[in-house]
Amino acid sequence: MVPVLRGPRVVLRPFTLDDAPAVYAYASDPEVARYVSWPVHLRIEDSLAFLAASADRVAKGTCRDWCIDYRGQVVGSIGLFDHQPSHERAEVGYVLGRRFWRQGLGSEALRVVLDYAFCDLALRKVVAHVRPENAASRGLLGRAGFCEEGFLRQHLFFKGEWWDVVSFGLLVGEFRPG
Ligand SMILES: CC(C)(COP(=O)(O)OP(=O)(O)OC[C@H]1O[C@@H](n2cnc3c(N)ncnc32)[C@H](O)[C@@H]1OP(=O)(O)O)[C@@H](O)C(=O)NCCC(=O)NCCS
User: CA-based Rg of the chain, rounded to a whole angstrom?
Assistant: First the structure.
């Protein structure tokens, strides 16, 4: 269901409950959690619950979550969710620990997942929804060739507030592997 995928530097593999301390290491950082849908992890139990929920979603087939392994340590995660087979579309989301930002690791993990999405799942389109002020995520998507498709007002409700988001999309014919 969630295959191991490899890039030049990263290995994307399914999570296990043993990854909880590594998840806690990045998910307990408020800067890392600022623009993601889940609240900052305050204790290791939050990370265990996150991993259990992820395993549940994966088992139901509604999403694919990978941990990003770099030099033998878990540095973040990336996932495909809201997969709609009849529309040949899914959404991508990602997060990296702060120490690993701006080293091209997000771009590499994204490229690996896009390759899987377009070549193995035969998707036509991958989308992402990003808070307007999240410059890093907008930059990452722009660098990967995504187009900005629109500004969606009060589109998501997370962590007690309505979020405006910019909608990004990449079509299979626009994807440039490697
Ligand atoms: C978004 C995120 C995964 C980017 O990962 P990354 O590995 O740092 O990104 P890369 O190093 O591959 O950078 C790719 C491009 O994104 C842009 N970028 C990355 N960080 C940026 C920043 N802080 N400000 C502006 N642009 C940025 C740049 O254009 C960069 O290309 P360049 O280095 O050639 O200029 C990382 O910042 C992160 O985990 N943020 C917190 C979680 C999050 O917001 N997730 C997304 C929710 S929608």
Answer: 15
